[in-house]
Amino acid sequence: MGIQELLSQYGDKYIQALFVTWKLTAVSFVLAFLIGILITIMRVCPVKPLRWVGDFYVQIFRNIPGATLLIMLVYALPYLNVVLSYYTCVLTATSLIPAAFCSEYLMAGMNTVSIGQIEAARALGMSFGKILKNVVIPQALRSSVLPMTNLLVATMLTTALASQVPMNPTDLTGLVSHINTRAVGGVTAFLISAVLYCATAVVIGQIGNLIDRKVRILR
């Protein structure tokens, strides 16, 4: 089946699948970002048990395959009488894993903040929370724009996990499986999805570079 024939038959489904992928990417990244900030705060706080929990989270979810986590959420949780929708399972898997990498990028950004600034904040009587909120985290975020851009692209690619469960409507990768089970889409079906993934990644990269040039801290 050629590209024109595929687009004539499934063009509307490709557009719908693209929007599903975008939605999953946006929601997953926002959740991962919020969880990542929380985990990072735990990893640098003075309370040792919280630091242990934060480090444990990163070590676990940084090293667990996404497919494995999704299988656990879909097929293992029901044995514990916890049944989640396929959408929720995919969203959870594509948020928890990027959150670990988000924390690592934020920690690297925090390392760019000089000790002198933190000591000055302490000298002014600022609490630990205020130092993080007003001094450390803002600079860490500005130093982490490009890594976060890469994380957003990685999160988008991770949403392909949605193809492993019967979601409706499906994502770009799931649509390819849908097409190839009903017609001979072959490599062409994959090619169209790949082009849409690449185009989205290029746009994300360009926006990330623009933001980085505007907020970059010159040292």
Structural notes for this entry:
With 219 residues, this protein is mostly helical. Helices cover 78% and strands 0% of the residues. It has 9 helices and no strands. The protein has helices at residues 3-44, 48-61, 66-76, 86-110, 115-123, 128-143, 145-158, 172-180, 186-215. Helix 1 packs across helix 9, helix 2 (48-61) packs across helix 4 (86-110) and helix 3 (66-76) packs antiparallel against helix 4. The radius of gyration is 21 Å and the shape is flat. The termini are far apart. The mean pLDDT is 88.
User: Which stretches of 5+ consecutive residues score pLDDT under 50?
Assistant: none
Distance between the termini: 55 Å
The biggest beta sheet, please?
none
Mean pLDDT: 88
Q: Give me the count of strands.
A: 0
Q: What is the helix content?
A: over 70%
Query: What amount of the residues lies in strands?
Result: under 5%
Order of helices and strands: HHHHHHHHH
User: If you compute it from the alpha carbons, what radius of gyration comes out, rounded to the nearest whole angstrom?
Assistant: 21 Å
Structural class, from secondary structure content?
Answer: mainly alpha
Regarding quaternary structure, how should these chains be classified? single chain
Overall morphology = flat
Helical stretch tally: 9
